[in-house]
Amino acid sequence: MIRLEKVNKAFGTTARRRVLIDLDLEVAEGETFVIMGPSGIGKSVTLKHIVGLLRPDSGSITVDGQQVTTAHGSKLREIRSSIGYLFQGSALLNWMSVGDNVALPIKEDRRRKLSRAEIDRLVLEKLSLVNMASERDKMIGEISGGMRKRAALARVLASNPKIILYDEPTAGLDPRMAATIADLINNVKNRFGVTSIVVTHDLSLASSVGDRVGMMHLGHLIEVGTPEGMKQSKNPIVRDFVEGRPILSVDEETKLGMILP
Amino acid sequence: MDLIRFTGHFVQESVKGSGYTARLLLGALARVPRAGKRFRSVLDQMYVCGIKPLPVVVVVSIFTGIILAYQTGLELDRFGQREKIADIIGIILCREMGPFITGLILTASVGAAMAAELGTMKVSEEIDAIECMSIDPLDFLVMPRVVALALMCPVLTFLGDVVGIIGGGFISEQQLQIPWTLYVRQVIESLRTPADATGLPKDLWCGLVKAVIFGLTIAAVGCSTGLRASGGALGVGRATRGAVVISFTLIIIFGYYLTWFFYP
After folding, report:
1. Quick one: CA dihedral B68, B213, B205, B180, positive or negative?
2. Is A230 exposed, middle or buried (CB count within 10 Å of its CB: 0-12, 13-18, 19+)?
């Protein structure tokens, strides 16, 4: 289970911008929770807090009962070993082939002492899950954006995570590739029973993968419900987002206390 | 007020950067016992740091020897001391110019490339991805680069010394009519003295120790500026420029203090 309690985070040195304000979030085991909201609202920042890449100014974050906010070194590595993170830009290592990227977390896992043949078998297995087995020897520069997302997902799966955090998994992809990614997210959930948090502003992705959807606004979740429920929401902010109305201006954000003097 | 704020910010960032770089270098050195596990990465980096810049080091060193011999030779000739050219070339190259020139070449080529490579990885979230896979970036990325530069900088310096001396010998024979055999004998003789407790030519080994320290400096600064890059392509450019400027400055400063330490 993932639990965030009263998490606050502000960035900047002079005019500090508050990105997370008393954020509460609870995701049950095996659940797929979608965080929805416009760009720059703090969705990715939330994910980075869960995996310990960012530290909150205040508040508590626990993953399976283990406190992330105070974890360092081997403790943090232990927590991270159960979490997979699919980055928005895939974050594959360019100097390696697709296969070597997928093999990396397997080779680097000190608990698993596997032979070369076993590593090769696992790499092929993970690449097959995302229909990328034939691209194994290609370099990252030789494959498309959609393939990179799938290769990155195979790399995430290679570490057998119990939790997967998806950061804008369909950003920049055409509708068919986006649908393929949505299918993969559902397949991974059904096959491995992983807990997932998906950050997106893609409503169709939210509908197709989410058990619950949370709308993020002013640094916290203003409404949580089922994907269908969100579409019927009476909340004007949710309605504005669903219907694609313009977002707040800087003056409005300042008025609402999002920007600290 | 702006000037005060700018100065304060500059001092704060410099102190933070120095602390981060020192911590990074110590962290990388503490992981050196694991270099065997990263043997392939270390070898790859040794190729990048040692083989790729080799042609530049050879060309620059040979011309440094030529220029040094030509300019010094002309002046020595005026005083009838032209046979001293071999002593001067040998000592200056091994003691000071060899490590200094190699350090500058490696800063501009390898150090800048390290900052750009790691900076790009940082801004494209590859470093974050490595951390999320529970891989220690210091062990995976920094230590192989530090080990490779600490090993290859003295190797290139030694080659640069030899090539520079050969360049100087060429000019000595052509312009100053000093025979090769005499030149080589005098270079060896000049490097033998003053002998110290190690029994090794002091000018040579002091130069090589300098090269090791320059190698560590270039790697630490290149990795540190790269890993602190932020703000997309602009940030990577800033990190690369920072790596070159800081390494150049430190090489000159460390060069002086090392000379002062070895030749008090």
Report:
1. negative
2. buried
Task: Determine whether the interchain pair A87/B129 forms a contact, defined as Cβ–Cβ distance below 8 Å.
Answer: yes
Q: Per-residue b/e over B166-177, b at no fewer than 16 CB within 10 Å?
A: bbbbbbbeebbe
Partner-chain contact B134 A108, CB within 8 Å: yes
**Predicted-complex ipTM score:** 0.87
CA gap A106, A91 in Å, rounded? 17
CB atoms B132 and A51 under 8 Å: yes
Residues B197-247: tens digit of each pLDDT: 667 788 888 999 999 999 999 999 999 999 999 989 999 999 999 999 999
Q: Work out the minimum CA distance from B243 to partner chain A, whole angstroms.
A: 22
The pTM score is: 0.87
Does A107 reach chain B within 8 Å, measured CB to CB?
Answer: no
pLDDT-based confidence at A39, cuts 50/70/90?
confident
Longest Cα–Cα distance of chain A, Å, equals: 61
The answer to whether B132 contacts A77, with C-beta atoms less than 8 Å apart, is no
Contact with chain B for residue A77, Cβ under 8 A = yes
Q: Which residues of A touch B121 (CB under 8 A)?
A: 93
Contacts of B1 in chain A (CB under 8 A): none
Beta-strand relationship, A32-36 and A195-200:
parallel
CB proximity list for B28: less than 8 A, separation 6 or greater? B138, B142, B143, B145, B146, B147, B219, B220, B223
**Selected residue with higher pLDDT from A157 and B2:** A157
